[in-house]
């Protein structure tokens, strides 16, 4: 049974070529839903043979859902533009074993990188995310940021995706700042409210979990740094929610 690759993009000219090459190793088509990029993302994608559709950004989940209508196959491999499959994932898909499994969605482990540095500590590994699912019974959620695929029978697999999401600390901070804006807005619109101490409690809980439970302390200064990053943006998410409450 054939697989459709699906990617949502915006100004990803540095990454999209490698992502499409990765998908084409196991997919018979690649669908790109682009949010009107101003760089060469669309040109590169078309040169690689991908089908490209333009759509103003609807949010992380809705944008992916929009792309499903253009996928001719039931099984969807939905990578981000800065992701490529590991060899163990290629072998799993080429084997076709998923046809005989009762599952409709597979969660892979993430290798997260800052530049070429692998961040496999402080809760950054294993970072499970669903990237492979059957669109008949599973689909991305409607969340605006960090959507999660919802399926009837999901399973975690010891398979991997390489995620080259950040080039520097500046890049991590910039992206997480944007994500917390979206998360706070989404929580507010869903009626969630924060007390004055929620930013503090969530901040401490995130730091404690990453530094101790996720063994960040075994990685010296790096373990402390990435634990603090998680803690700070957990704080900011609820601080921004609190600000939205006051403004309303």
UniProtKB/TrEMBL annotation:
Residues 6-156 form the Glycosyltransferase 2-like domain. It comes from the Bacteria. The keyword Transferase applies. Keywords: Transferase. The keyword Transferase applies. One of its GO terms (molecular function) is transferase activity. Belongs to the glycosyltransferase 2 family. WaaE/KdtX subfamily. This is Glycosyltransferase involved in cell wall bisynthesis. It comes from Flagellimonas pacifica.
């Amino acid at each position: 049974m054939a697989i459709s690759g699906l990617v949502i993009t915006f100004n990803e000219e540095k990454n999209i070529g490698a992502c499409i090459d990765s998908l084409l190793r196991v997919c018979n088509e690649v669908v790109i839903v682009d949010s009107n990029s101003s760089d060469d993302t669309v040109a590169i994608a078309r040169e690689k043979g991908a089908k490209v559709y333009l759509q103003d950004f609807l949010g992380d989940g809705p944008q992916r859902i929009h792309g499903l209508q253009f996928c001719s196959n039931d099984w969807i491999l939905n990578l981000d533009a800065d992701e490529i499959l590991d060899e163990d994932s290629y072998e799993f898909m080429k084997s076709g074993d998923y046809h005989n499994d009762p599952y409709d969605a597979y969660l892979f482990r993430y290798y997260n990188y800052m530049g070429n540095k692998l961040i496999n500590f402080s809760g950054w590994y294993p970072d499970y995310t669903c990237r492979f699912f059957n669109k008949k019974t599973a689909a991305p959620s409607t969340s605006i940021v960090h959507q999660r695929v919802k399926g009837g029978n999901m399973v975690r697999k010891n398979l991997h995706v390489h995620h080259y999401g950040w080039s520097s600390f500046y890049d991590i901070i910039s992206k997480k700042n944007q994500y917390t804006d979206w998360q706070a807005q989404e929580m507010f619109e869903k009626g969630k409210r924060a007390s004055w101490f929620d930013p503090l409690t969530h901040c401490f809980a995130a730091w404690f979990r990453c530094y101790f439970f996720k063994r960040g302390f075994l990685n010296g200064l790096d373990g402390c740094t990435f634990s603090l990053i998680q803690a700070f943006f957990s704080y900011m998410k609820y601080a921004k929610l609190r600000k939205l409450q006051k403004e309303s």
